[in-house]
């Protein structure tokens, strides 16, 4: 055996080229460590050699396992959760004919691409919630191979598969992969756009029409999937122009033509949207985002929706992890053009949304930013690859474990902040109410998911009261008119149960008014942010005072 390949440390008195076992015996237990390291290295090299010989089979097998994991998580934990407010809105909007779908979406804050597709899906396969959620799951599954293709533009096969595994186990992706909304469709279209953008970014492909045509098509589809996709396109356009500075300007005209095409495609919808009132009465009341909100977006991307205490610890750990990583970066490692673009794609659109939320109107929600998540995972994988091999592997293992734990906690914990248990609230009320009681839901639009489950004896109204038979937006809250509204609602009822589940800025005023005027007889936190409070508002001669319900402790 050639001594040039034998890089182990020689024991005292050992001759070069001596058998390894003899050296190990001469050096004692300490001499076995290099031998073990060489054995582990040879085993890893064998795995790499096998993966290199059967790359396509390994890639396909990993992606199939990831798809199976997504399906298993969906079936075990997510698909059976209670309908949430946004999902009730999706179902309500797609219960109508296509023309009416456009009308209802135009009165909302979204574009109609997903809703038209969901309407078709429900006509073909069924109208229940699980069927609607299956469409989002399908988009999630289709995004797995696309993410691999995008990652391969910046990474080798191993690290690309690592990004795919983390993506598939992501608590954030699994949550929205099981929600009847457009967010996984947005991820899928964004990945397709990024794949074609990286193709047109290649100078060798600048003159070919096929990549440009595919890129333009995904741009139009993305613009009709979610308004946030426009920030993705803006970041791509800015990067494309920056990459041409000092080089050939070839392709700039085609990029400009793509931008014009997207604008022209959106004009009919924007005119229709404006004529319908520009969703002036249905916009959620959101505060201007802070730097903490910006950090929370990326914390939720990686670790999902955790309790405030856990999320605070995760966000606080970022500087330490960044310093540890930077201290281990290998000198001389250069960033590829694809990696540089994905870095822009991971942070640029979110920064743009943050700025617009301050300059125009607040709309900064992590789910709107989900298009940046795949690029973030590829950038994280690229960063780990730049580290020394040992540090990179250890941190990759830590990230994978944290992803799995985050998904498990998010799926099973009752403290998960995004869980909205309208089914649980309906079941609680069905067991308590009588025909002489009244259920009051505030804010008014939260009646959509609640009424999907509720089948009790008491009548259900909203506060402010909303007559959905009349045209127009949601009723505005007027604190001065609150006493008269409440008096009119509770007249003739023995008990009133107040369901508070979405704070539009006045829920505390509503609750405090009831507390000041009536005897509280029941309180229960159904899920984070959802509270059910009962009040005695009248007395019946047929019902003794002693039968009043006990107040349940707040959890």
Question: Helix and strand layout, with pairings?
Answer:
Blueprint: H1 20-27, H2 29-53, H3 55-78, H4 85-93, H5 98-106, H6 113-125, H7 129-151, H8 157-169, H9 171-176, H10 183-201, H11 209-223, H12 229-244, H13 252-275, H14 291-303, H15 308-327, H16 337-359, H17 373-386, H18 389-412, H19 422-432, E1 438-442, H20 447-453, E2 459-462, H21 482-490, E3 495-500, H22 507-517, E4 519-527, E5 530-536
Parallel strand pairs: 1-2, 1-3
Antiparallel strand pairs: 3-5, 4-5
Protein model, in words:
This protein has 555 residues and is mainly alpha-helical. It has three domains: 14-51; 54-277 and 287-412, no CATH class; 422-547, Rossmann fold. 61% of the residues lie in helices and 6% in strands. It has 22 helices and five strands. The protein has helices at 20-27, 29-53, 55-78, 85-93, 98-106, 113-125, 129-151, 157-169, 171-176, 183-201, 209-223, 229-244, 252-275, 291-303, 308-327, 337-359, 373-386, 389-412, 422-432, 447-453, 482-490, 507-517; strands at 438-442, 459-462, 495-500, 519-527, 530-536. The radius of gyration is 29 Å and the shape is globular. Residues 1-27 and 541-555 have low confidence and may be disordered.
Any descriptors?
mainly alpha, 3 domains, 5-stranded mixed beta sheet, 22 helices, 61% helix, globular, disordered N terminus
